[in-house]
Q: What sequence folds into this?
């Protein structure tokens, strides 16, 4: 901690707007303590001001982390509302002609803007179509689509009629899709003919057909939006054309209110093995929390254009592309393409064209773009930007500095957010314009979140220290259960440290009270008795200008127990992959020793052409672990990778290292 303790806190270069929910640090302390001392009172007050309730709740939180073993915790249980009405209808009186969704298509220059009036019509028509297809409150609907605005419409239409949606990332295999259809008992699948990404067509309908070829995975109907109008296999008894069906129904739909604890969606956690694990979120608490955190963290202001370049297949897309932004009545950007298509300036072209004020992306994208050079950023006018955000993994300080200084030109607030599918919304984060920051720190908890650090033996760590990150009290946005298996929910999240929610992450807290996420606990290496996070190695390696990207995993070592294996993408015209030269290896060994300590050493290094990443930008580490362990045959499903060909290149490089 000695290195980070010397870092000076950086005050945000902006000030908060007049509508800020938390305008300064004094207000943050007051609200955080209020939520700590009276969570029910705090959130009842917030939700009545943030949402339109058909029947306002009088009950706050029912249950705690001890009682969750018997039944799910409940929030606002006597209240009734409609999530779709809160995201669309209630804005029609004051902002019907304001842009609700700006869709940036895969091909540059192709974009569509829907106003709140347009969105209302689209959602009402889709809700009527789903009702005509026999879907009713309590049913489940699978959404398997790319990043088109119709995916958001599908989500909101399900919410409008009280059907729980389960969005499956449009890159999952037919087998993965089949398992999710079976697990949640879906009645309808909503998909599209093809997606577009990086100049390529992405098969979607054909994957659905393959998934439904299993006798166990049967649905009543498949609703198909035709994005590319590609030739399709078509089952007249089952398949329904989206546009045709929507054109034949009314553009009006009278929404009914549902209980706050009515299921809103089921989202299956990525990377799970065996039976899918579907986290179930409910309506009132989830929407309260996403609305609050979206407004508070990003200092949302009237007229803002907000751009989150995630995918709706993940929780970030749910909370901070669709539900949070639309509930707050802002303009949200949906992005179909990739940060590198047609070149590394695509994000910044988007910002310039649409005058984006708030931009939210993943550290892995930032690192990849930084490696391409500053000129792809500086050629665009980014003066509209006020707030930058990161999500999905810890951001190394060097990437943070590049994002802050090159993209933000030192004039934007930068919020490094930590949260999970399970938390529903942002849990630890600076507040834009409020929280003094450090490069790479998730800083402080949001009101309602009480983080604690514990040793593996459950001893509470006070003050500066490092341990397992747990949360001490319920908050409205948390997942309620695993669909159909509450026992699994309890075992996964509440058995390691009874009475507390265990995040699965390690965390370091410094003398400022700031939190530094060190990565998943299973990404902590134990080398000759020294515990070191893989994130520590990666952050150290990336400080060397020769290293564009790094991923570190452990592998069995006959002497040390675990060895350290580093996969490296280098900035070099030399395209020979496999072993590093002695000179480069010595240089990198010196870097990790200097950054981590004398006990830190790379036991194996492999130069590769690229990391195995999903389309959402996450590194598929299980592949790297298996290759490091010498297992190159049973690598599991790689259908979610952006480029599956990279796997063979990694295996070949490992054979030469």
A:
């Amino acid at each position: 901690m000695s290195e980070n303790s010397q870092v000076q806190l950086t005050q945000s270069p902006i000030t908060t707007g007049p509508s800020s929910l938390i305008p300064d640090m004094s207000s943050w302390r007051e609200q955080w303590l209020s939520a700590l001392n009276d969570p029910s009172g705090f959130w009842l007050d917030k939700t009545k001001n943030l949402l339109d309730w058909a029947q306002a709740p009088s009950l706050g939180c029912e249950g705690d982390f001890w009682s969750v073993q018997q039944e799910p915790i409940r929030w606002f249980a006597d209240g009734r509302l409609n999530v779709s009405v809160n995201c669309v209808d209630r804005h029609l009186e004051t902002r019907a002609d304001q842009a609700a969704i700006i869709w940036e298509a895969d091909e540059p220059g192709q974009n569509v803007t829907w106003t709140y009036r347009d969105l209302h019509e689209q959602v009402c028509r889709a809700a009527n179509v789903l009702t005509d297809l026999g879907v009713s409150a309590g049913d489940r609907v699978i959404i398997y689509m790319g990043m088109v605005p119709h995916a958001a419409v599908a989500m909101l239409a399900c919410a409008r009629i009280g059907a729980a949606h389960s969005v499956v990332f449009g890159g999952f295999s037919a087998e993965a899709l089949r398992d999710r259809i079976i697990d949640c008992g879906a009645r309808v699948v909503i998909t599209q003919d093809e997606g577009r990404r990086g100049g390529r067509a992405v098969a979607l309908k054909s994957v659905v057909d393959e998934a439904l070829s299993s006798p166990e995975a049967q649905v009543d109907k498949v609703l198909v939006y035709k994005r590319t109008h590609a030739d399709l296999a078509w089952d007249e008894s089952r398949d329904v054309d989206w546009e045709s069906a929507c054109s034949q129904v009314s553009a009006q739909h009278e929404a009914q209110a549902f209980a706050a604890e009515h299921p809103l969606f089921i989202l299956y956690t990525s990377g799970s093995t065996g039976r899918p694990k579907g986290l179930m979120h409910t309506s009132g608490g989830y929407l309260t929390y996403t609305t609050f955190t979206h407004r508070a963290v990003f200092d949302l202001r009237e007229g803002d254009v907000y751009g989150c370049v995630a995918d709706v297949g993940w929780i970030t897309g749910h909370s901070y592309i669709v539900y949070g932004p639309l509930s707050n009545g802002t303009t949200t950007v949906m992005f179909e393409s990739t940060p590198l298509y047609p070149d590394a300036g695509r994000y910044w072209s988007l910002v310039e064209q649409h005058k984006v004020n708030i931009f939210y992306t993943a550290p892995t994208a930032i690192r990849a773009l930084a490696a391409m050079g500053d000129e792809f950023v500086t050629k665009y006018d980014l003066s509209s930007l006020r707030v930058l955000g990161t999500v999905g993994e810890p951001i190394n300080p060097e990437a943070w500095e590049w994002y802050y200084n090159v993209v933000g030109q030192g004039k934007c607030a930068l919020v490094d957010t930590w949260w999970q599918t399970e938390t529903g919304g942002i849990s630890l984060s600076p507040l834009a314009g409020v929280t003094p920051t450090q490069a790479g720190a998730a800083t402080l908890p949001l009101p309602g979140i009480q983080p604690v650090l514990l040793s593996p033996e459950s001893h509470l760590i006070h003050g500066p220290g490092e341990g397992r990150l747990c949360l001490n009290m319920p908050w409205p946005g948390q997942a309620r259960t695993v669909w159909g298996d509450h026992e699994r929910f309890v075992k996964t999240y509440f058995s390691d440290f009874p009475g507390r929610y265990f995040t699965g992450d390690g965390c370091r807290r410094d003398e400022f009270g700031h939190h530094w996420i060190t990565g998943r606990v299973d990404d902590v290496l134990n080398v000759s008795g020294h515990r070191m996070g893989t994130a520590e190695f990666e952050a150290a390696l990336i400080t060397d200008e020769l290293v564009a990207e790094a991923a570190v995993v452990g592998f069995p070592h006959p002497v040390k127990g675990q060895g350290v294996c580093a996969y490296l993408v280098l900035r070099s015209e030399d395209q020979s992959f496999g072993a590093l030269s002695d000179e480069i290896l010595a240089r990198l060994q010196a870097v990790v020793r200097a950054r981590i300590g004398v006990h830190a050493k790379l036991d194996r290094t492999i130069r590769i052409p690229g990391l195995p990443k999903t389309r959402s930008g996450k590194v598929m580490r299980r592949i790297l672990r298996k290759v490091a362990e010498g297992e190159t045959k049973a690598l599991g499903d790689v259908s979610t990778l952006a480029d599956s060909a990279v796997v063979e290149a990694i295996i070949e490089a490992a054979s030469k290292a």
In short: The chain has two domains: 2-509, 528-656. The mean pLDDT is 92. The radius of gyration is 24 Å.
